[in-house]
Structures are given as structure tokens and as C-alpha cells.
């Protein structure tokens, strides 16, 4: 049945005409009083909001998280309170470096950002499809990201900038190797894993802390494009991953991920007995030492009805935790805690938490008032200060986390040239060794292809510096890349 609805202005005035502007005579100039024309043009001019400074190109869907295994001995978070419990959630995938209109199949990490609407507040786990990252200190983030964006002079992406930075910052090597493997070009978003990446903490009912890593293993199986396939898909369909996600969910083929965790006791994490820093984002916790523990299943089962409303306006922040889940001393996580809400205030405005997709569906109470686009009742007639004698608002100290025992002087800079901190090579080397011969070959060829783009007067210096890193990770890897680049190296494989 056809619905008969009247076209109106935003203030409700019915249109008498929508395709002809008021004019003096059929060929004459237009009238200033044509408010509808002004309203249409003015709103159109304001349709764009700033795109995310990173992760601008993305896709998302709503879904459900279901608990399958009991982890209440680690956490009192209500989302994990009983087997079978379901929590509504949102997942936004993304590429990192490209603009909002860039291709889905670019070689890039993929964002894996989740918002769980729990009764203790919204919990955001803002991860990637890789367990590690390029840098381990947030002061480096903007410099690193600049190398992934456009050259300020040519306005082109620049392999020279990328490899110059990576070669000068060897802690990137682990993430760069994953990026250069075929996992750097996943077959859409359904066939890749997600990782919380950082070390987080869990707090149990007795207020004890455990450190934890989150892993989301794809139930669809890992599937990647080769370099050539990714390039072909870019020419054929820039929006491959968006199309793949929306079509599968529309068809009832709901993608799933199994949530697993690794846990480390607080005593062990803080004792410095383990050979690596458990809060270093460039390292994984080897599964042999910290096995995966089953927790539950994420299923995406509902496409958003309106992309801009629910996905473009979605605001994820690692700072958004809930009772039973906490931060950690990971320096990168600490930096991100401040960065994301700041970015949201710039991109979406100070009241971004009131946009329906970001709003906590359960009660929120505070004394924040006013600001642009306040639309939630603004606290009504209630007091706007604390403490007061009227509203009976309480602070609940039951939510207090256990104190974190830290006893160190503060300093601008700590020497990281200590054992365990400065080994940027063993884990990338381990990864290369567990790859199949075909994966190794593809990775080597992808690196050769990418490094072949280095140009300019510093080319030899950058290539040699980066080669020495590959060599230190794995002699065979370094030698194969040098060979492919036609560089004559005379290096001993390190012990
Ligand atoms: P394991 O053999 O127990 O684990 C290896 C892991 O590597 C698996 O989780 C596998 O994920 C993943 N993997 C396989 N190929 C690739 C690839 N091309 N890119 C990224 N990940 C891949 O060994 P360890 O735990 O000792 O780790 C060895 C190396 O594996 C690490 O140095 C690290 O580079 C990598 N890795 C380790 C992870 C961890 O949390 N320990 C997580 C991811 C990677 P899948 O099951 O999905 O195939
Ligand atoms: C998006 C900053 C590291 C994953 C963003 C945004 C900023 C940012 C400003 C845009 C937010 C917005 O406008 O909504 C930083 C800083 C980092 C850092 C300062 C380091 C100090 C990381 C790491 C990961 C990550 C380590 C993954 C483990 C993401 C994801 C998004 C994102 C997935 C997109 C979220 C979405 O879908 O809306 N980051 N980031 N970032 N970041 Fe980071």
C-alpha cells in the first residue's frame, strides 16, 4: 500500500513545490523569500562532519554477545555473569590510513571496534585485527600515522615515508610483518580475527585483579586476498568489505567470532619475572605460556537501518569500561584513554553520548548540563551540582578497584634498553617460522613489492636499515628480501 505523506520543511511547513524555485517570471531571477530553497541548500552544505582522523572508512552491524563458558572467577562484570546470557552489541570494522572513500582492500590493519550495551554501562573494546601495534608509546602515534597518510608536498601516499619511519623505529617490525603477510589484505571483514590487543584487567567479586588479553577468533575461518587479488578487487569494487558484510547479514548468514581470553596473575605481571613486559603492545603473550580460555560468541545479526546515524556517528572509546573490567599500565592504552573522547567531542560534539547508538540504554545520572545539541531532557528540574540536599544521589564505593601497587619515581624518559624491552626481533621471527612455505613466499614478495616503492636520495640508507631489521628477525627472511630487491648484503645471521 502506498503511504500518502506530505513533504514538509524541517519545521513542518508543507511544501507546495520541490523542484522549481520561486522566480520572477518563468525565465526570471529567484526570490530571496524562497525559504525552502535556502533550507535545502543550507542543510546540504552541512551534511559532512569531519571523518575520523584514522579508521575513516568503515562498516558496521549490530549483534549479540552470548556467554558460553564461566569466567566469573576472573571478573564480576555483569556481561559475563552467567552462561547463556546475551548482551546487545555493535561492531564497526574499518581500514586505518585511507580516507572515507578509500578502497576496502588496501593493505592496512583493520579496526575491530565493539560496543557492548551492558546494564553496568557501555563497554567499548576498540581493537584491531592484529594482536600488536606499530609503536609502544602514545607520543609516537601522530608521527607514525602521518607516514601512513599523504605526503605534504606530493599529496600522494609515500612508501618512502613509511619505510623511513619503520626502519627508524624497529619496534614496528612485528606489526609490519603481520601487515605484509596476506593477513594485511583480509577477504572482507568476516574472515579475520579481532584482538583487544592491549592488556586489560579483570576484577573479581572479591576485588582481586587479573590481567587479560581478548581474542575474537573468526568462525568463518581465516581467508585473505593475495596482493594481486586485493589490487584486482580494488579496481572492481572499492567497497567489497561493506558489500560482503551487508549482503551476508541481509541473507541471514550471520558472521560469528569466538571470544577467548588469556590471563596473567597480577603478581606475575608486576613481578617483572616474565622475560617480556606484559604491557608492551608490540609483543604477544605466547599461547604456550598463556593458553586461550573460551568465553563466548559474538554474532552480527542486524544491519543498521541508516549508516550515518548508527555507524558514522558511533563513538568508541577504550576509556569506556564497566565494573569488573579495568585498564592496565600499558602506555598505549593510557594514551588512548584520553584521545578518543577528545576526538568524539571534536567530530560529533560535546553531547555525543546522547546520540542513540552511543547512549547507554540503562540509567545514567550526572551533573553534566547544557552544551550544543542537548536533547535528553538535560536533567530536567533536578539539581545541577553535587553535593546537594535534594536528589539523594549516591557515590557507590563498592565499585572501587583494588589499589595498584606501583612504587617508582616519575621521569620524562626511561631507558628501555633493557632485556625483554628492546627485543623487537624474536617474536616477528617466531611468526615467520610458523608460516607455511606459501605464506612465507607471499609475505616476502609483498615486502619486496612494498619496499620497491622507496625512492629519493635516502633510498639506499632506508633500504639497508630496514633490511638489517628483517635479517635480525630471521636470516632467511632478510636474505630473501635483499635478493628480491637486488641488494648485495654481506651480513652474518645473528645467533
Ligand atoms: P602459536 O603457534 O601458539 O600461535 C600462533 C598464532 O599466530 C595463532 O594464533 C595464529 O592465529 C596466528 N597466525 C598465524 N599466521 C599468522 C599471520 N600471518 N599473521 C598473524 N597471525 C598469524 O604461537 P605463539 O603464541 O608462540 O606465537 C607465535 C607468533 O604468532 C607470535 O610471535 C605472533 O607473531 C603470532 N601471533 C601470536 C598470537 C598470540 O596471542 N600468542 C596471536 C596472533 C599471532 P590463527 O589461529 O588465527 O591462525
Ligand atoms: C580510531 C587515536 C591506537 C584502534 C581512532 C581515532 C583516534 C585514535 C583519534 C578516531 C576516533 C573517532 O574519531 O571516533 C589513537 C591513538 C592511539 C591509537 C592516540 C595510540 C596512542 C590504536 C590501537 C588500536 C586502535 C593500538 C587497536 C588496538 C582504533 C579503531 C578505531 C580507532 C578500531 C576506529 C573506531 C571506530 O570504528 O569508530 N584512534 N589510536 N587505535 N582506533 Fe585508534
Automatic annotation (TrEMBL):
Belongs to the catalase family. Signal peptide: none annotated. It is an enzyme of class 1 (oxidoreductase). This is catalase. CDD domains: catalase_clade_3 (cd08156). Its cofactor is heme. Residues 1-25 are annotated as: Disordered. GO terms for cellular component: cytoplasm. Coiled coil: none annotated. The keyword Heme applies. Keywords: Heme, Hydrogen peroxide, Iron, Metal-binding, Oxidoreductase, Peroxidase. Its EC number is 1.11.1.6. InterPro entries: Catalase (IPR018028), Catalase_3 (IPR040333), Catalase_AS (IPR024708), Catalase_clade1/3 (IPR024711), Catalase_core (IPR011614), Catalase_immune_responsive (IPR010582), Catalase_sf (IPR020835). SUPFAM superfamilies: Heme-dependent catalase-like. Residues 8-394 form the Catalase core domain. The keyword Heme applies. The active site is at 55, 128. It comes from Flavobacterium granuli.
Amino acid at each position: 500500500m502506498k503511504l500518502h505523506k506530505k513533504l514538509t520543511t524541517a519545521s513542518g511547513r508543507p511544501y507546495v513545490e520541490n523542484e522549481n524555485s520561486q522566480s520572477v517570471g518563468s525565465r526570471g531571477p529567484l526570490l530571496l523569500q524562497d525559504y525552502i530553497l535556502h533550507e535545502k541548500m543550507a542543510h546540504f552544505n552541512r551534511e559532512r562532519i569531519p571523518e575520523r582522523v584514522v579508521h575513516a572508512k568503515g562498516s558496521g552491524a549490530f549483534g549479540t554477545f552470548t556467554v558460553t563458558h564461566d569466567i566469573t572467577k576472573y571478573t564480576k562484570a555483569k556481561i559475563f555473569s552467567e552462561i547463556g546470557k546475551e548482551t546487545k552489541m555493535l561492531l564497526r570494522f574499518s581500514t586505518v590510513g585511507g580516507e572515507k572513500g578509500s578502497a576496502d582492500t588496501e593493505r592496512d590493519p583493520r579496526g575491530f571496534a565493539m560496543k557492548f550495551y551492558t546494564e553496568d554501562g557501555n563497554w567499548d573494546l576498540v581493537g584491531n585485527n592484529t594482536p600488536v601495534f606499530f609503536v609502544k608509546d602514545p607520543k609516537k602515534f601522530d608521527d607514525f600515522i602521518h607516514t601512513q597518510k599523504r605526503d605534504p608536498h606530493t599529496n600522494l601516499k609515500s612508501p618512502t615515508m613509511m619505510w623511513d619511519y619503520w626502519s627508524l623505529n624497529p619496534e614496528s617490525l612485528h606489526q609490519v610483518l603481520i601487515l605484509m603477510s596476506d593477513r594485511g589484505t583480509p577477504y572482507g571483514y568476516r574472515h579475520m580475527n579481532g584482538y583487544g590487543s592491549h592488556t586489560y584487567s579483570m576484577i573479581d567479586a572479591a576485588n582481586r585483579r587479573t590481567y587479560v588479553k581478548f581474542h575474537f577468533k573468526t568462525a568463518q575461518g581465516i581467508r585473505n586476498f593475495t596482493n594481486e587479488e586485493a589490487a584486482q578487487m580494488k579496481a572492481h569494487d572499492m567497497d567489497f568489505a561493506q558489500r560482503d558484510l551487508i549482503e551476508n547479514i541481509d541473507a541471514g548468514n550471520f558472521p560469528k567470532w569466538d571470544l577467548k581470553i588469556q590471563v596473567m596473575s597480577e603478581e606475575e605481571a608486576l613481578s617483572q619475572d616474565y622475560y617480556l613486559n606484559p604491557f608492551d603492545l608490540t609483543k604477544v603473550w605466547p599461547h604456550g605460556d598463556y593458553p586461550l580460555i573460551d568465553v563466548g560468541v559474538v554474532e552480527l545479526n542486524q544491519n543498521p537501518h541508516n549508516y550515518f546515524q548508527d555507524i558514522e556517528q558511533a563513538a568508541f572509546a577504550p576509556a569506556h569500561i564497566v565494573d569488573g573490567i579495568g585498564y592496565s599500565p600499558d602506555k598505549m592504552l593510557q594514551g588512548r584513554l584520553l584521545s578518543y573522547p577528545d576526538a568524539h567531542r571534536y567530530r560529533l560534539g560535546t553531547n555525543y553520548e546522547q546520540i542513540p547508538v552511543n547512549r547507554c540504554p540503562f540509567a545514567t545520572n550526572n551533573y553534566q548540563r547544557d552544551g550544543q545539541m542537548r536533547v535528553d531532557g538535560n536533567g530536567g528540574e533536578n539539581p545541577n551540582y553535587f553535593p546537594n540536599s535534594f536528589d539523594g544521589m549516591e557515590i557507590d564505593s563498592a565499585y572501587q578497584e583494588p589499589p595498584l601497587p606501583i612504587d617508582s619515581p616519575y621521569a620524562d624518559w626511561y631507558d628501555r634498553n633493557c632485556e625483554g624491552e628492546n627485543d623487537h626481533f624474536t617474536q616477528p621471527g617466531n611468526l615467520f617460522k610458523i608460516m607455511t612455505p606459501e605464506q612465507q613466499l607471499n609475505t616476502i614478495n609483498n615486502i619486496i613489492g612494498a619496499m620497491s616503492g622507496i625512492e629519493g636520495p635516502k633510498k639506499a640508507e632506508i633500504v639497508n636499515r630496514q633490511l638489517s631489521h628483517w635479517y635480525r628477525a630471521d636470516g632467511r627472511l632478510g636474505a630473501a628480501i635483499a635478493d628480491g630487491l637486488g641488494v648485495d648484503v654481506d651480513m652474518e645471521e645473528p645467533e
